[in-house]
């Protein structure tokens, strides 16, 4: 039993072509080197998705792990050095589920001083209490393994990664920029269509076509105002010809002609959309119903569902196992700390780039996926009869991978929910949680 435990998760190292890029490599190497230098009775636990094994489509089985090692030699050599001074433990997540399927993985990782525990959940002792540790995919129907350890019992999420995410890595070089490889940062997967459309509009669309479309969208509200004003004229609420024969507008000269053309085009577009609205609504409704029957759209971790399924599982476990003081999971890529009396639920987040959908400053233009990093780790140790959890974020440069136009019109995203740097609990204290436990970030 160690005196101190350090937790990280969801590194997702590996993948075909562009997906193998590790944007936080320097920060990870520095973090591991610091642990090596400190040494002591410390255990680093990577609770799932250390590797993106699903993201390799051209190789299978143990060869996937070999590819990760070949693609990231500096990281594995630093892991070897860190593992000489402290214990380093890995458990499988869904993206590196292969670790639970092939016994040879344990021996291969041991060569780098990494201890693999191919279990769906493990525990550690801290003081007189226990820490429950899992990745969390078993609470996500799209990624739940029905037969743990069976390499052929794969969930829906595997095929989504293989057909969409891995393919994006292979074709990323054909895009204007490296934006396609960020598909692994899009969560949940229902966001992928909207993310694709946003990047098509701002990056892939012909600049000439965008130069035509953007003014039309920007003047859409003016078109609505014009249409509303003409209706008010027709019913006599406004003076006659107030909108249709305004002297101020006529004084604009050529600009008046351009404005009238834009309004006319928007009026035609609005009329066409109204004609198509009903059949498109019926089609969308039927498509959602069909996908729901196959479990692809209406189950799993959906937009707006946040961490509720995982918090529900944590509540049930803490109620059934009173000696567990801290419940640790990952998977959702949202770092958080939730306190229920003298029990804690920790989400270890991700080291991947995070993409947050933000609205543009101008209505009707597509939203933008704002990039950021939140590299972090949690430390858990006993202090007398109490348990201490410390949280720290690692500074990194914000990625500057938005186009100039996107940076100009994007609203700044809200700041992430803050996590206390230090939290102290008494493991003999009570569990206090309502029947419906909210996420620590109510916006998720």
UniProtKB/TrEMBL annotation:
Entry keyword annotation includes Cell inner membrane: yes
Protein name from the UniProt record: Phosphoesterase
Domain spans labelled Calcineurin-like phosphoesterase: 6-139
SUPFAM superfamilies: Metallo-dependent phosphatases
Stored InterPro entries: Calcineurin-like_PHP (IPR004843), LpxH-like (IPR043461), Metallo-depent_PP-like (IPR029052)
Gene Ontology molecular functions: metal ion binding; UDP-2,3-diacylglucosamine hydrolase activity
Residue ranges, annotated region (Disordered): 416-444
Family annotation (Pfam families): Metallophos
Residues passing through the membrane, by range: 208-228, 261-283
GO biological process: lipid A biosynthetic process
GO cellular component: membrane
Gene3D superfamilies: 3.60.21.10
Keywords linked to the UniProt accession: Cell inner membrane, Cell membrane, Manganese, Membrane, Metal-binding, Transmembrane, Transmembrane helix
């Amino acid at each position: 039993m160690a005196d101190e435990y350090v937790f990280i998760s969801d590194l997702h190292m590996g993948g075909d072509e562009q997906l193998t890029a590790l944007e936080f490599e320097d920060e990870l190497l520095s973090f591991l080197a610091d642990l090596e230098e400190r040494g002591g009775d410390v255990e680093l636990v990577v609770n799932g998705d250390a590797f993106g094994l699903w993201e390799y489509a051209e190789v299978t089985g143990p060869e996937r792990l070999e590819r990760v090692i070949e693609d990231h030699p500096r990281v594995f050599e630093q892991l070897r050095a860190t593992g000489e001074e402290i214990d380093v433990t890995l458990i499988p997540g869904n993206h590196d589920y292969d670790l639970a399927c092939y016994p040879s993985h344990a021996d291969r990782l041991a060569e780098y001083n990494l201890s693999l525990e191919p279990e769906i959940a493990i525990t550690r002792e801290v003081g007189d209490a226990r820490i429950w540790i899992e990745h969390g995919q078993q609470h996500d129907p799209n990624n739940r393994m029905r037969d743990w350890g069976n390499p052929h019992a794969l969930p829906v999420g595997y095929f989504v990664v293989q057909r969409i995410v891995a393919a994006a890595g292979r074709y990323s070089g054909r895009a204007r920029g490296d934006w396609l490889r960020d598909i692994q940062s899009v969560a949940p997967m229902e966001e992928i269509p909207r993310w694709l459309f946003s990047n098509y509009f701002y990056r892939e669309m012909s600049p000439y076509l965008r130069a035509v479309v953007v003014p039309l969208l920007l003047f859409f509200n003016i078109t609505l105002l014009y249409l509303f004003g003409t209706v008010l004229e027709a019913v006599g609420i406004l003076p006659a010809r107030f909108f249709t024969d305004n002297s101020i507008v006529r004084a604009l000269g050529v600009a008046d002609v351009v404005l009238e053309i834009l309004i006319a085009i928007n009026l035609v577009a609005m009329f066409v959309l109204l004609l198509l609205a009903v059949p498109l609504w019926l089609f969308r409704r039927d498509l959602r119903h069909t996908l729901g029957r196959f479990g692809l759209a209406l189950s799993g971790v959906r937009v707006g569902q946040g961490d509720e399924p995982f918090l529900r599982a944590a509540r049930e476990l803490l109620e059934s196992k009173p000696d567990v003081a801290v419940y640790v999971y990952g998977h959702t890529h949202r770092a958080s700390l939730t306190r229920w009396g003298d029990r804690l639920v920790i989400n270890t987040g991700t080291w991947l780039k995070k993409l947050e959908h933000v609205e543009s400053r101008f209505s009707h233009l597509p939203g933008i996926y704002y990039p950021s990093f939140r590299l972090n780790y949690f430390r858990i140790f006993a202090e007398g009869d109490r348990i201490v959890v410390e949280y720290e974020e690692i500074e990194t440069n914000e990625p500057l991978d938005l186009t100039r136009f996107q940076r100009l019109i994007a609203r700044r995203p809200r700041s992430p929910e803050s996590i206390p740097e230090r939290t102290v609990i008494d493991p003999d204290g009570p569990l206090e949680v309502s029947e419906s436990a909210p996420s620590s970030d109510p916006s998720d």
